[in-house]
Amino acid sequence: MVQPTDKKLDQEVFSEATHLYKAGQYVEAASRYKELAEKDYLDAQVFLGWMYSEGIGYAQSRDSALFWFKKAAALNSAEGMFYCGRLLEEDGQSEDAFEYIRLSAGKGYPPALCRLGLMYLIGRGVAANNDYAMQYLRRAADQGNVFAKRELAVVQMKHALNLLTWTQGGLRFIAAIIESFLIAWRDPYSEKIRC
């Protein structure tokens, strides 16, 4: 009889944890995710960090969330880098947040491309730079990120030189809002609705 590999067993445990989570058995799911996270299973580290940040399955702990996000980021996880940056940004550590978001965007992670564009647009953690902002927002929008599409529409409306351009921006804005609702309805965890 052939023994399953550790990787296959880990995938089975991850699937089991996900099933438990979807069934509302958060404590049990968190336990399985933690078992995998301690074995450097990246998806489990990111999900465990998210569970700690939201207080699902464990008491809410931003320190524990940051620990798991940083651990995943150190293992080259674009999602880990993104969520680490988001948490640091929420905590007012904009410069550190920018670095994690920048690294994640460098891997082409669409939510990070969107967030980096916004950070450049408003000058959070970095000097404002409209050219970089538009570059990153367009890259995110090209990959289907609706928040980037929405922000590009807002910029178009703000800088419209005539009614036609403003109207086009307004229509793009409405389309992005509708698209975000449709995506959230089908898949509330979609990368297309994260920024």
Automatic annotation (TrEMBL):
<dbReference type="InterPro" id="IPR006597">
    <property type="entry name" value="Sel1-like"/>
</dbReference>
<dbReference type="InterPro" id="IPR050767">
    <property type="entry name" value="Sel1_AlgK"/>
</dbReference>
<dbReference type="InterPro" id="IPR011990">
    <property type="entry name" value="TPR-like_helical_dom_sf"/>
</dbReference>
<dbReference type="Pfam" id="PF08238">
    <property type="entry name" value="Sel1"/>
</dbReference>
<protein>
    <submittedName>
        <fullName>Sel1 repeat superfamily protein</fullName>
    </submittedName>
</protein>
